[in-house]
Predict the 3D structure of the following.
Amino acid sequence: MQFDYSSGKPQDIAADTLVMFTPQLTTISDRKLKELDQAVDGALSFLLKSEDFTGKQNQIAAFYKPAGYKADRVMLAGL
């Protein structure tokens, strides 16, 4: 298993799993999260609205094969 850190565009990172960390949210205001939400057809917005994922500490949301992303899966981890 290999771990790397990158501050580049998430869409350009080729990986089995790309982990993005986020603080607690009520709306999507971060540009990178807005782009992810578009890539997964609003699934992140749905998770926030249903409160299944809010970015609280220890929460995780996984998205498989987001459109336009090189990573096979993107995981959001709450801080």
